[in-house]
Write a structure and sequence with these properties.
The complex is a heterodimer of chains A (92) and B (467). Chain A has 2 helices and 1 strand, in the order ααβ. Chain A is mostly helical and 92 residues long. The longest helix of chain A has 27 residues. Chain B has 467 residues and is mainly α. The longest helix of chain B is centred in the first third of the chain and has 35 residues. In chain B, 61% of the residues lie in helices and 3% in strands. The chains are: A mainly alpha (92), B mainly alpha (467). At the A-B interface, helix 1, helix 2 and strand 1 of A face helix 2, helix 3, helix 6, strand 1 and helix 7 of B.
Chain lengths: 92, 467
């Protein structure tokens, strides 16, 4: 258990360190008007992207269908059984 | 901070304020969450005499909610807005972005205050039948709805880009951010449905709650939640990390495929968290377990793509192999071969009695009469071996050897040790499999040609040409 405390302590000091860097970055960094952010470009050797991969929202619709497929069954099972309604509790 | 707030803002600075607000709310959440975390850890270890008012589970709930829900969400919304704004520069209103942030903050504050007041000690899974104050559930719902507003802002920018750049694919980094939020919206439908059950129950408007139903809704959301986190990390790994070493995304299509797979496979997996729950047949539990393995595939792809990007960047710098550390003649020669040029035009094979002379470094000489290299040099395809075998012929200095390697001196003679099968095999592009005993098994006509010629040369010490 002492090891748990030590582990917790080490984890803890990493976070103030992170926060100190974050705050220092915010306050000390030189202010600049040009805010160019570059993102990595694909390698020249890479193949061209198939058009079917471009449509992010269509894949979202398909994902919704998959989710319905995956959950309709178990949801139906739950709803077929008589639901025991819990009044709720406060254990603390 | 005062300087940022005081000066008249440019367009970017306005955007930055919104992003800074998101990211630093996340930072505040993790700082606060860490304080609760260390208290909880010490109390658990008994290293800290918890006072009577100290409520272990309240602290644990606060820690979990702040770290797992608030910190991650604010960070990913900030990150996604950042990449979207930068990759699609335009005149834009930030009202929606600020509204989303405000809604998320309001929700967080409601949930956090409720927990602190001791009315929502339900841990961050808020499992029924533990019953928290309705304001906790409403706060959590507002946090989620705030992320939907941010998602709307990102989607609006995607829509704008498509409208103004007809036929062009949306920038990869924006695709990644949009995919993250598409997945997130599909996933958070579960938690919103759960809240639709929990809130009326917490207010006392419904007599009871179907515990199993709420848990299933929770895990419909709870497992994709972790993919929300890793997709945020993947945005950085794919699009931002390579800029630190002047590298590239390994492949645009592969990256998009990874995110599409994460959209599809993140959600239909949640029931593997409910093995012990009654009322769900083992068929569905098994099915969700199997699909959970499916979602490992995009992670494997990512593991491959990230290191492939490292390797591409190293090769662009003229390095061979992942741990290659120095540029060398042999390396450039190998690369030219690798790119299909016929580089090496003539070989004079050394006699066994001749010794390889060192070239400006302090590695042990090889005994040419030995049948094998020292163990640490036997690794196949190490380019420095090839370099070592280049030339003690005084007429060819290092520069000329480089030029020969580059194909600039067609009549140059590259000399190498007769037994240097490693070099032979390296030239045959089989740098990874050049252990001596495997030499004969190397595929390809060109390879056999070279090896045979080298062996013939050893006998006669003649010069051979290859083109």
């Amino acid at each position: 258990m002492l090891l748990a405390a030590a582990g917790g302590f080490f984890l803890f000091i990493s976070i103030p360190t992170f926060v100190a860097v974050a705050i220092g970055t915010l306050l000390q960094n030189a202010k600049t008007e040009s805010m160019e952010a570059t993102f990595a470009a694909p390698a020249e050797s890479a193949a061209t992207t198939p058009p079917m991969l471009q449509h992010v929202f269509r894949w979202g619709v398909l994902a919704l269908l998959l989710a319905v497929l995956a959950y309709a069954g178990p949801l139906g099972e739950l709803l077929r059984h008589p639901g025991y309604l819990a009044p709720g509790m406060r254990t603390w | 901070l005062p300087r940022i707030l005081r000066d008249r803002p440019s367009e970017h600075v306005c955007e930055n304020r919104l992003i800074i607000a998101h990211i630093y709310t996340a930072t505040a959440a993790i700082a606060l969450g860490a304080v609760f975390g260390v208290f909880q850890g010490f109390a658990r270890a008994g290293a800290f005499g918890a006072p009577a008012w100290f409520d272990y589970y309240r602290v644990l709930t606060m820690h979990g909610v702040l770290m797992a829900l608030v910190f991650t969400t604010f960070f990913i919304t900030g990150l996604s807005l950042f990449v979207t704004y930068r990759a699609i520069p335009r005149e834009r209103s930030l009202v929606v972005g600020w509204f989303g942030w405000g809604l998320m903050l309001l929700g967080t504050a409601m949930a956090a205050l409720t927990i602190l007041r001791g009315n929502a000690t339900v841990l961050y899974t808020f499992y029924a039948p533990l019953k928290a104050s309705p304001w906790f559930y409403i706060g959590a719902t507002l946090l989620v709805l705030g992320t939907w507003v941010v998602a709307f802002e990102i989607f609006e920018n995607v829509y704008f880009f498509r409208k103004t750049h007809a036929g062009q694919p949306i920038p990869l980094v924006v695709f990644c951010a949009a995919a993250t939020f598409v997945m997130w919206i599909v996933a958070t439908l579960g938690v919103v449905a759960e809240m639709g059950l929990l809130i009326p129950w917490a207010f006392g408007w419904t007599p009871g709650i179907n515990v199993m139903l709420t848990r299933m809704f929770f895990w419909y959301f709870g497992h994709p939640l972790v993919y929300f986190w890793i997709m945020g990390a993947y945005i950085i790994w794919y699009n931002i990390i390579p800029t630190r070493y002047a590298g590239n995304v390994f492949s645009d299509g592969l990256t998009r495929l990874t995110f599409v797979m994460l959209i599809l496979l993140s959600t239909p997996v949640g029931i593997h968290h409910e093995f012990m729950e009654p009322g769900i047949s083992s068929t569905w539990k098994m099915l969700h377990t199997v699909t959970t393995y499916g979602v490992a595939i995009p992670s494997f792809i990512t593991a491959f793509a990230i290191f492939a990007s490292f390797e591409l960047a190293a090769m662009k710098e003229g390095r061979r192999g992942f741990i290659a550390s120095e540029s060398s003649v042999g390396r450039s020669a190998l690369q030219r071969r690798g790119s299909g040029d016929a580089v090496v035009h003539a070989w004079r094979i050394r006699r066994p009695s001749q010794r390889v002379v060192q070239h400006g470094h302090r590695r042990p000489q090889y005994d040419l009469d030995r049948r094998s290299f020292p163990r640490d040099r036997r690794r196949a395809g190490r380019p420095h071996i090839f370099r070592r075998c280049l030339l003690d012929d005084p007429s060819i200095n290092r520069t000329r050897a480089v030029e020969a390697g580059m194909g600039a001196l067609p009549d140059s003679t590259l000399v190498f040790r007769h037994a240097d099968h490693v070099a032979v095999n390296a030239l045959c592009r089989s740098t990874r499999s050049a252990a001596p005993h495997r030499r004969r098994r190397l595929p390809g006509r060109k390879c056999r040609q070279l090896v045979g010629a080298a062996d013939a040369a050893r006998c006669g010490g003649r010069v051979f040409s290859f083109h």
